[in-house]
Amino acid sequence: MNPLLCGEDLPRYDEIRPEHVAEAVDKMVEAVETGLSRIEADTRPPTWKTLIEELNTLEDWFAHVWAPVAHLNLVRNEPALRDAYQAAQPKVVALSLKLGQSAPLYKKLLAIKDGGEWAKLDAAQRRSIDYRLLSAKLSGIALAGEKKERFNKIQEELSQLSSKFTNNVIDATKAFKLTLTEKTDVDGLPASSREMLAHSYARQNPPAKPDAESGPWLVTLDMPVYLAVRDFARSRPLREKIYRAFVTRASSGEKDNAPLMGRILQLRREEAGLLGYADYAGVSLASRMAKSVGEVSALLEELLAAAAGPAKEELKEITALANASGQPGALANWDLYYWAKRLEEKKFGYTEDELRPYFSLEKVLGGMFALVGRIFGVTVKAADGEARVWNPDTRFFKVFDKAGGHIASFYLDAYSRPENKRGGAWMNGVVDRRVWSGGERLPVATLVCNFTPPVGDKPSLLTFKEVTTMFHEFGHGLQHMLTRVGHPDVAGISGIERDAVELPSQFMENWCYHKETLLGMAKHYKTGETLPEETFEKIKASASFNAGILMLRQLNFALTDMALHTAKDPDIRAIEKEVAARTTVIPPIEEDRFLCSFTHIFSGGYAAGYYGYKWAEVLSADAFGAFEEAGLDDPEALSETGARFRETVLGLGGSVHPAEVFKAFRGRPHSAKTLLRHSGLLKR
Question: Tell me: the pLDDT tens digits for 244-287?
């Protein structure tokens, strides 16, 4: 039997092959279209049960087939699967549009809202109906004739362009390979990084068995490798070479994304016009917590004003160290993070490599699970072997409540596989929680990271930054898994305004600077020794190191994104330069084409929405402030505050507007002051 058609909640990832995709998608499309026709033809007055529950069942079938294919395309991106995915994509887009643009469905939704059924619905059900009505509007429900036909063609082309954009970035990243043979080439790189590069060479050149100390070493643009070279390589020419390669990815030849960017922006603007908006930012903000471009700009400008001065002072301090260490003159872009790292080590007295042995992935997971037990009252247990996985290294876990009841599950795909896995880290829902007349279905999530895999007897050892990444993605997972809502389109992260989605993830990062939490998991993988307390204090003090420069970097992305999506006829290069002049301490090199690999806004769902990271950081810092006020060392207060956070932020999901959810937790609207205090920018 085709594993995509088995109808089970947990996909049979290990059985899915490229040849299964076309058959499964065709049968799914036929079944969903038949079901849609049946619902549309139903002449009875619509009710929640006859309309929404029936739609949920169709949407489940859609997700059962397509979600595993889309997931495997990211974590097992092989040529045959990619071809199958791209061949099926137009049918999937067409079906999505058919569901979103069904006039009979839209009329039935309005009939519920305007009729007697509305009074019988609870707040979550009403929010679900409103969410569907807005989605229908943004799907072009009001369009007819040539306008509707044009809108649909735009959606199909945008889908194909986004997919091509991502593939070009993956391919361009994969294409860069630099073999190093001289020991001087890797001077400064931590032992773990040299080991990673030697392992990378061995994987690409079997049966070679390079040694971490004598090489050869293979440098790629895979993120852990790039960051290691950027931050630690003493060889300035090597830093320059990999920097130039990184910021020019997918910007030339067959993999050039520049033409795609222009076309994507043009199509989005046309789409906005068809929907009645002045620009694509209007489309984006229709489903965001921020009410207008003006409100977004006000926050970004507030943060920019706070960060600009400190960032300049930080650059002076970094430059002074470089000059005193024998590198004269102004810093180049490939010097900034290298010398910033040296200054950080000098100020705080530890290196990434000294910390890494204390953060084995298993210990980090154990500490993270213990934390959520303390503050949210849940238990996480390994359940490997109870679910089919797409890679032998993928783990499976179950989540239980205080009474021992199973409430959710999740997969963890932790390790980097640059040959066929997208870089970065993310969380996706596999199964949404659903409670309906036919029973209850528990939520399931997938957490994906790109950590250095174990080598021999050595476990996967994380940098401190990677520890925060693990907590970040688990925060997303918690919101998906601890939802109290039973309607899939507003359960967990579904239906949440996109600029509030990062609240739980960024909230969880704060706990990496909490003494009990960090020291509870920071155990040396060989000796079992706990990280010294004085080292923890240095880590905590370093949390605001370079806060100005790092803030400007994120504001550069956010302001560029918003400018591209509000300009009538955007001159991409001019906008890049104009924003960079306000948000960079060292001007970008002329060849810099970072937008060509900016998947977040061109293929990752953050178009005119990248500001959401900072928006949510304001929310998350302010939320963590409630725990600080309650007392981080008071177990009872933490448990009480955690229960409130779980009931509101994690529990309500998309069933209540995030501004109301935040007020319910915090007792007041959000403020940027806590974020600026945490960043050390409030007092400067």
Answer: 999 999 999 999 999 999 999 999 999 999 999 999 999 999 99
Residue 441 to residues 357, 396, 431, 436, 487, Cα–Cα distance (Å): 40, 18, 8, 9, 10
Pick the catalytic residue from 473, 497, 502, 617: 473
Whether the CB-CB separation of 660 and 496 falls below 8 Å is answered with no
Using pLDDT thresholds of 50, 70 and 90, give the confidence band for residue 683. Answer: low
pLDDT digits (tens, 9 = 90+) for 290-334: 999 999 999 999 999 999 999 999 999 999 999 999 999 999 999
Model confidence at 352, pLDDT cuts 50, 70, 90, reads confident
pTM for the complete prediction?
0.85
Segments forming the whole domain that contains residue 493: 357-545
**Percentage of the chain lying above the pLDDT 90 cut:** 94
473 is catalytic: yes
Residue at 315 is within a domain: no
Residue 462 lies in a domain: yes
Question: What are all long-range contacts of 339-345, with beta carbons under 8 Å and residues at least 24 apart?
Answer: 340/314, 340/546, 340/549, 341/231, 341/232, 343/317, 343/318, 344/542, 344/545, 344/546
Q: Distance (Å, rounded) from C-alpha 61 to C-alpha 56? A: 9
Secondary structure class of 611 (helix, strand, coil): coil
Number of domains in the chain: 3
User: Is the Cα dihedral 160, 161, 166, 170 positive or negative?
Assistant: positive
How far is the C-alpha of 122 from the C-alpha of 112, rounded, in Å?
13
DSSP one-letter code for 527: T
Helices (H), 176-292: 191-204, 223-232, 236-247, 258-275, 280-285
